[in-house]
Design a protein that fits this description.
The protein is of the alpha/beta class and 261 residues long. It folds into two domains: 6-201, 2-enoyl-CoA Hydratase, Chain A, domain 1 (Alpha-Beta Complex); 205-252, Lyase 2-enoyl-coa Hydratase, Chain  A, domain 2 (Orthogonal Bundle). The chain has helices at 30-45, 71-74, 78-97, 113-119, 145-155, 157-165, 172-178, 190-203, 206-220, 228-239, 241-252, and strands at residues 6-11, 14-19, 51-56, 61-63, 102-106, 109-111, 123-127, 131-133, 170-171, 183-185. The longest helix is centred in the middle third of the chain and has 20 residues, at 78-97. It is globular and about 60 Å long. The two termini are 29 Å apart.
Amino acid sequence: MSNDPIYMTKTGEIAEIILNRPEKLNALNSEVWQGIVELFGQAGADDGIKVVVLRSSAERAFAAGADISEFPIVHATPESAGAYHDKVRTAYDAIASIDKPTIAMVRGVCFGGGCAIALNCDLRYADTTARFCIPPARLGIAYSLSETKRLSDLIGPSRAKEMLMGAKVIEAREALAIGLATRLFAPEELESGTRDFAQNLCDLSQFTIRAVKTVVGEIGNGATDETETSRRLRTEGFQGADYIEGRDAFLEKRKAKFTYR
């Protein structure tokens, strides 16, 4: 256990980036936002890492949101506010842009900026204690367009409006029903369920997994038909070592050993 407010561990090919301000329910301060940028950058550059799990060291919270105690300082001037929001946006982008699969492992409170960083992960594996909320209406502020779009794309515009306008708390089972949570576990099964799927991802074709992430991202950006990138990936796939290994393993009735990193 580190004393740092955010740190990374590695087990095999799975990295865990751990939010570690349990006394503050992992309220996200400037140090944590910067740590997100640095650690996701390190994970992305490490060829030995195939999957990244974002999780909390706290029992009662994934993250309670941005650290509002910093707001009088970071919003003291338009310039300082702009610099702070650039830092937050850079942290979101660091999570969303990594080319490896990411899983937010969510228990307890997942509010505000905590919910936003979870939404920037590919998957949200939650337990039945999870509670999601984005409460700009309690602070009298406007939520960013990019993060509003991310929420709206995931749960639909009407539910996004309800959640943001009403500072609505979404309990775990509703979160699963509307797509806010990807999968739901009993509290005692969350860690093993998350790690089992992460290991499953490690054993499959990394070329395919990254291609899926890229193509779904293009769809999210408005693509409705084949793009230059999707065509290139399809062509490369049938010429790649992973395809040859997967095909031969299927024909030979053995487990494939993929090599793409």
